[in-house]
Write a structure and sequence with these properties.
alpha+beta; Beta-Lactamase; Helix Hairpins; 4 domains; 5-stranded antiparallel β-sheet; rod-shaped
């Protein structure tokens, strides 16, 4: 709109100046033309009257006066007859005696033989007149015939001309104004449309198209603008797509990602980073990195990456977690633009590494113990004990026990590894009552007179989708564990439906477990009473196998125990797992 105003005002100024120059020039030329034409006209009238005067040849004063008055009235002019001495013989405009006119310019020039027409101020009539004078001769008269007309008449004609010019100028100005408005709109409309389109694009509307009928420069500009918009839209769509993909990658990453600029201000980060920083609800973009992160490992990684322009990895602690920080420089053409930092929470990884180390250590120890025993008895037999049937028989029985223990340990390790892989391809409806009966029958020989099993089968239990071998292994480990740690009393087994869960409960009246050990009893090879466990032939993996089977079917396990009163394990396996 401002552009349209500027162009319109420019047009207006040019039009006003042009009209003023044209008006002045036209009026000036018109005034000169009317003045010249008037002088020429009155000079011709004077010449005609001179010829009439010479043809009539008056010789009396009355005849002079009659001629002057008659033609003065006929032509509406003042007529003066002057002799060669400058005396006025007759004047139509004055009856008084007039002063000598010999010094009047038009009279002097006419007496010299010129035909004169000029304008000057009349002291007699006290106004400006246009005078036309010619020399005349008749009879014995030699003098001047002069016609004079007040300039007021010429000025009236000039005023009429001025009025006509003013009206014409106003009319032309209005027409020019309308034309200027039209041309201003015609010229600025495409430019304004391009401007508005640019504003819409700046607001993010890349579907803007300029439609114009222009074929010249503005038309080419509009076409180029539309092409630019199309390319810009395509580029923005690609950038938005890439940005969405990048954000999706960042969001899906478990590790925290943050980028800082050369001033150590945060440029962007993902949700995992804000969680690690314990700042889920805060906006971190633009803040100082060192005001939001407090970790020596991260600081060191960033420092090395900046100074040496290489990737650097450091491990340490941050907000109570074990972390691994990887810092990589963001390198521009000539300088480092910033640092990209990946922060990984390796707390669980370190715990798993520790558990693996413990597991390897425990497995080695558990395998080494029976193997050492077997090797010792074999060496003893080789050294001559084999010749004593009684001793050799005893040693062979021990070797058999240790071999069985070794075999059980290996089987439990393989079973635990298989369960941990969470791959079970033998899922089918399982008759739980039947499985429980098989387990009870299998373990029944281990019960004595002073140790009883309390189990009452339910009339009906809905089939449970599972691997029957896994449920059997779970029951065997729980019951076998209860039997080992209960010298006398009872072991109670409950198996039934409880809402949407399959409930399995094994309780005993055995020695119980101290409260401080309950949180660790599901760890591999953990034994509360190591001597008693080995004496009973346990591998230390039973309860760990139970826990992993429960987790395999998205179940829950709970344990309650009191020393000298007994222990109760409760397992709930959901039917909709």
């Amino acid at each position: 709109m401002k552009m349209r105003k500027k162009i319109f005002v420019s047009y207006l100024v040019i039009i006003v100046i042009a009209v003023m120059i044209a008006t002045f020039s036209f009026w000036n030329r018109g005034y000169e033309f009317f003045s010249g034409e008037s002088e020429t006209k009155y000079l011709r009238e004077t010449e005609l009257l001179g010829e009439l005067l010479e043809s009539k040849r008056p010789d009396k004063q009355e005849e002079y006066d009659k001629f002057v008055d008659y033609y003065s009235g006929k032509y509406g002019v003042r007529i003066t007859l002057i002799d060669k001495n400058g005396d006025v013989l007759s004047d139509s405009g004055n009856t008084k005696t007039l002063e000598n006119h010999l010094k009047r310019e038009e009279v002097k020039r006419a007496l010299n033989g010129e035909h004169v027409s000029l304008s000057r101020y009349s002291n007699t009539m006290h106004q400006t007149y246009c005078y036309s004078a010619i020399p005349v001769e008749f009879n014995s008269f030699h003098g001047v015939l002069r016609i004079s007309v007040p300039m007021a008449e010429i000025k009236a004609l000039n005023q009429n001309l001025v009025h006509a010019i003013i009206l014409s100028v106003i009319f032309c100005f209005l027409i020019a104004l309308v034309i200027a408005l039209f041309f201003t709109k015609f010229l600025t409309e495409p430019v304004e449309e391009i401007t508005q389109a640019a504003e819409r694009i700046s607001e993010g509307n890349y579907d803007t198209v300029i439609k114009t009928k222009e074929k010249g420069e503005l038309g080419r500009l509009a076409s180029s603008f539309n092409l630019m918009t199309k390319n810009l839209k395509s580029t923005m769509d690609n950038l938005i797509g890439k940005n969405i993909e990048l954000e999706a990658v960042f969001r899906s990453m478990n590790g925290g990602v943050v980028a800082i600029d050369s001033q150590n201000n945060i440029m962007f980060y993902n949700q995992a980073f804000s969680k690690l920083a314990n700042k889920d609800e805060q906006e971190l973009t633009g803040r100082s990195f060192y005001n939001e992160v407090y970790s020596e490992a991260i600081y060191e990684a960033v420092k090395v990456a900046k100074e040496n322009q290489i990737d650097e990895v450091k491990e340490g602690k941050w907000n109570g977690k074990r972390i691994r920080a990887t810092a990589a420089p963001l390198v521009g053409e000539d300088e480092i633009l910033g640092i990209l930092i990946l922060v990984e929470d390796i707390t669980k990884l370190k715990k798993l590494e520790h558990m693996r180390s413990d597991f390897v250590s425990n497995v080695t120890h558990e395998l080494k113990t029976p193997l050492t025993s077997i090797r010792g008895f074999v060496d003893t037999l080789k050294n001559g004990a084999i010749d004593d049937p009684k001793v050799s028989r005893k040693f062979l029985d021990i070797i058999d026990i240790e071999t069985e223990r070794l075999y059980s340990l290996i089987q439990d390790i393989l079973l635990l590894s298989e369960i941990e892989s969470k791959q079970d391809f033998e899922i089918q409806p399982c008759n739980i009552t039947k499985v429980v009966k098989e387990v009870v029958d299998l373990l029944e020989p281990k019960f004595k007179e002073n140790l009883k099993l309390n189990y009452v089968p339910e009339p009906y239990i809905r089939p449970y989708y599972c691997n029957a071998s896994r449920i059997k292994e779970l029951l065997i480990n729980l019951l076998d564990n209860a039997i080992k740690y209960t010298e006398e009393g009872s072991v109670t087994l409950i198996c039934k439906e409880d809402g949407d869960d399959l409930l399995i409960q094994v309780s005993d009246t055995g020695i119980g477990i101290e409260q401080k050990y309950l949180s660790r009893i599901f760890e591999r090879f953990y034994r509360v009473d190591k001597g008693r466990s080995r004496k009973q032939g346990g591998t230390g993996l039973g309860l760990s196998i139970v826990k992993h089977i429960v987790e395999l079917y998205n179940g829950r396990i709970k344990v309650e125990s009191k020393v000298s009163e007994g222990t109760m394990f409760e397992i709930r396996l959901p039917y909709n797992n």
